[in-house]
Amino acid sequence: xxxxxxxxxxxxxxxxxxxxxxxxxxxxxxxxxxxxxxxxxxxxxxxxxxxxxxxxxxxxxxxxxxxxxxxxxxxxxxxxxxxxxxxxxxxxxxxxxxxxxxxxxxxxxxxxxxxxxxxxxxxxxxxxxxxxxxxxxxxxxxxxxxxxxxxxxxxxxxxxxxxxxxxxxxxxxxxxxxxxxxxxxxxxxxxxxxxxxxxxxxxxxxxxxxxxxxxxxxxxxxxxxxxx
Length: 228
Fold this sequence. Notes:
Layout: H1 2-25, E1 28-36, E2 42-43, E3 46-51, H2 66-74, H3 78-85, E4 91-97, E5 106-113, E6 119-127, E7 132-140, E8 145-150, E9 152-154, E10 189-190, H4 210-213, E11 220-226
């Protein structure tokens, strides 16, 4: 008798939990707010995407795709957007928040999710850097509300010479991309900030220093709120 009662209780508990599970995985909209928490780095336009666990923009320790290289070196989200959308039904939404996001500033976008696409990715280049980008990499969407810390990653596609000649954006106005070189790290890793590399000259261009542009991870705070 006790066994039968216990089995019945377990069945009832399972039935009660089903509506909550359905509520959690039904199509919905999420408000995503990104705050730049660095002292002197600026974020380029922010890529925000919802997708399934089968999709990832990058793998730490792996080699950057051409799309990620473009994002990390120039801030252009177009190729990464195309790469994500090529996954078809595995991706629910891909948005770009335009403009630059300075230190202490926040930006918000609303994205769609569905029962298949329950992961969130956020990415943008840090300027002025050679190939550093801030990212949340396929984190699970919260049921209602969540706060995430996003680190800076180095794409490993360009040597960190901190030379304005090789850094795009309003501070430096240098080249937005680079050809492969032996000095490139070759794999995606956690960014280790700016370092004292000395001063530049008229031929090599200005070399930026750590006092203004250095950082410690994380570099962004991401607040996610379900709005429907």
